[in-house]
Amino acid sequence: MKYKILSIIIVVVYFFQTFFISYGGIGSDSLSYFGIAADLPNPQTDLFPLGYPILLKIIYTFSKDYFWASKILNLLFTAIILLFSYRKSFYFRETVLLFTGKTFYFVFFGAMSESPFIFFMYFLFYFLHEIFSEKKNLYLNALGGSLMILCMFACRYSGIYIYLSILLFSVLMFFKLKDKTYFKPLLLFLVVSGFGIGGYLLFNHMYFGSLTGENLRGKPVWVSYIYVVRDFLGLANAVDPFIGIKPASNSVGSIAFQFFVFIIDVFIFLYLIKYYKKAKETSLYYFHMLLWIMACVYGVAVLVSGYLQQIEEMGVRLMAASNFCLFFSFLILYFQNNSTDKLVWRISCFFFIFLVTYGMKDPGNYLKNKDKIQPQISKFKDKVYLYNDEKNNVTVTTYHFSIINKSFKYTHTNSQKGKLKESIAGTVNPKIKWVKYDTVRDRSKVLYTSQLKFD
């Protein structure tokens, strides 16, 4: 009963929390996805895959608002996963606890492509689990899994790393798996999903002239040693189900804190290994092995790709898939090897409360902010580009801890006035494309955030 109650609380909290956050969970990438969705059925770029924009467009036809479209999608993703898990008796307790962790909380919090990516990945795990369980309809499950991985790739190009990890697993385990009942269905899965991914890449090449928008991404920038260290710490943090705090500062105190978290991650990794070894005693040993290979291949592949193109540093967002693999494997094995759930239940509930509380560190009223800006956008229908020209107008938040009588200041990037105006304007009218730099020569075509007023 407690897991049913927690699942309801999770759905409610996930849906309503962003209303009380100043930026509403809308970031720069959100505006890019809204812009692609607004251009459909005539997409102008393949910088991002079309999967998430198509889903947004479908919901937008009913909601007539891209913010609400993203909210409805996240609500559907969370509710469908939980209902499916409960009705199918597919690790319901484990699934509920996944939602108390940092990955599910983060990806279903805002408008980002990771939300459908993780959603389809959950069902990929279901079909693979059914295959390795050697249950009936093996070939049907293989086709279902192929559809899921194609949907993942259509939402994020990094889905190909999941495919490659399954391919690598099959090659490494060929001689041990070739006589298994599920080997041929697994082979069918690889062939069908491989053709599906290849077909999508061919479409991109024929329609846009590139495979994954590689010609639109900037060249890799010089990376300092400190960011190499931060990336490594971010990769290592993929093993941690709950703690994902990564300060933006490179101060001595910030790096020391991240190393402290790294030490915690090492102990967690050793704890996870202890349970992974227990998988050898189960009939689903190869399923757990596959999840661990997925986590490793995906994490390392994303890390390497970060040095070949301009993407953000390794953190909860980029390591979401790896963390999901490891946490899910651990939860399954934990419940199989323990007669009581008191420890994992208490820890999960504590960190869920912590994540929700931490997520409210920069409170605000997004809908109120949106209501102030939305009426002004109609005056700028002739604008083509959107630029935040208030980046130097920085608001610093001061936090005071009375217990230790200490204060510290922090700048919330997404909550700066210019950034807020940019996110709201780009959500209300995504046809106005946001630009990172003020390089448009015809300034009459640019909507500057300073032209919008909150007062």
From TrEMBL:
Instruction: State the superkingdom.
Output: Bacteria
Transmembrane parts of this sequence: 5-26, 66-84, 104-127, 147-174, 186-203, 255-273, 285-308, 320-337, 343-360
Keywords carried by this UniProt record: Membrane, Transmembrane, Transmembrane helix
Which protein, by its recorded name, is this? Dolichyl-phosphate-mannose-protein mannosyltransferase
Q: Which residues form a coiled coil?
A: none
- Calcium keyword on record: no
